[in-house]
Amino acid sequence: MQYKTELHAHSATVSPCASVTPAQLVERYTEAGYTTLVLTEHYCDYVIDPAGETWEEKTEHYLSGYRALKHAAKDRLQILLGCELRFLGSQNDYLVFGMDEQFLLTHPALHHMTPETFSSFARENSLLFVQAHPYRRGMDRIDPTLLDGMEVFNGHPDHNSHNLKALATADRYGLIRTSGSDYHSASALPAGGIRTSDPITSMSQLLDILRSGNYTLICSGKNAARDGLTDMPAKS
Length: 236
Fold this sequence. Notes:
The protein has 236 residues and is α/β, with parallel strands linked by helices. It contains eight helices and eleven strands. It has helices at residues 22-31, 45-48, 55-73, 101-106, 115-124, 163-173, 203-212, 221-227; strands spanning 3-9, 34-39, 42-43, 78-85, 94-97, 128-131, 149-154, 176-180, 192-196, 216-219, 232-233. Strands 1, 2, 3, 4, 5, 6, 7, 8, 9, 10 and 11 form an eleven-stranded mixed beta sheet that branches. Strand 1 (3-9), helix 1 (22-31) and strand 2 (34-39) form a beta-alpha-beta unit. The radius of gyration is 16 Å and the shape is globular. The two termini are 22 Å apart.
């Protein structure tokens, strides 16, 4: 049996560009046969900065979507905490895996860092730093040596993320390959993520699996059909 994990999804509780509620996320993903979802709310100036006076208030707001999703999921869907980080002065987005609630509380204003400083910070703290949809319009590719991985399949139905270019770049530089639905709307269908032989129940387990390459990339939906992609091994 193979287990499905989503690596890129948002809720309307925190991400202003999303319209799907935590309860709707649970319904969509359990119906689609997923056992784990990593919630990657947007972490950027327009989400974090107006969310309170103190860092604790800002963090509490940022975590509200994750907590609401865990409450809605109960024992139906495993929920893990990720983030989609955007630094000041850039439109680039980065998926970050490995942080927990306490880490966010004790490491303020990550969006005020730069890709260079965050790359060193991520490695010092055993985080994975993955550029999301690097070839989507408006994105810039950073020095690949700063990254651990690259999102080689992005399933957002309203964007052409030029996944084949991302796949070629990840392979050229030996980066970890990830796939995600970039889920925002209840009208969409989950289209990305990974398949594993065992269910993913913790962030430490997810990090180990991503570093090992022992998983299959889920590539489905509109973007997969356009690019001629199907589910593929994480390692080329």
